[in-house]
Amino acid sequence: GSEVSALLGRIPSAVGYQPTLATDMGALQERITTTQKGSITSVQAIYVPADDLTDPAPATSFAHLDATTVLSRSIAEKGIYPAVDPLDSTSRMLSPLVVGEEHYAIARRVQAILQRYKALQDIIAILGMDELSEEDKVTVARARKIERFLSQPFHVAEVFTGSPGVFVDLADTIKGFKGLCDGAYDHLPEAAFYMVGTIEDAVAKAEKLAAEVA
Length: 214
Fold this sequence. Notes:
Layout: H1 2-7, H2 21-29, H3 56-62, E1 67-68, H4 73-77, E2 90-91, H5 96-99, H6 101-127, H7 134-149, H8 158-161, H9 170-182, H10 199-213
Antiparallel strand pairs: 1-2
Helix pairs in contact: 2-3, 6-7, 6-9
């Protein structure tokens, strides 16, 4: 699009994209529709230049999507898989009218804890954990456990992770994150939450780790 636009002598917009980017994208995305005779469901893999979600191309695409799953290099670098960023990822289904009040409330609490941790990371990097308030220290500890609990032992990834795949019910997932947000598992080590299924698996793993140390 940008190459053709340049050949036609149009003045480029931000970052060199064609001035008709939004119109072109809309014309393409509006073909994905539902009629009485059938429907089209689109699953799109979108390249994000320089990992910048505000780049005009991906930003224009996101406006047409019902849900986005954003993969993060920084999360992958921590060894957490799938490396999905729960703060940048979105879904129109995350509404109390669709998923229920409890599911919605817990999801928002998890995001709030992770967002606070993200805001504190610069302070931690420069001044260290000791400069944080007691409340922020608790928030950071819970956020780190939540990050690890978001890792998932997939059946298809057993060869790579060495962890057997696990299926977890939605109710068990909500229960686990509710306990983490409430501080019910503040006494468990971070490692106990990595690549486990239910919160009970995390408790069992913590007991196993404690026994190994003893």
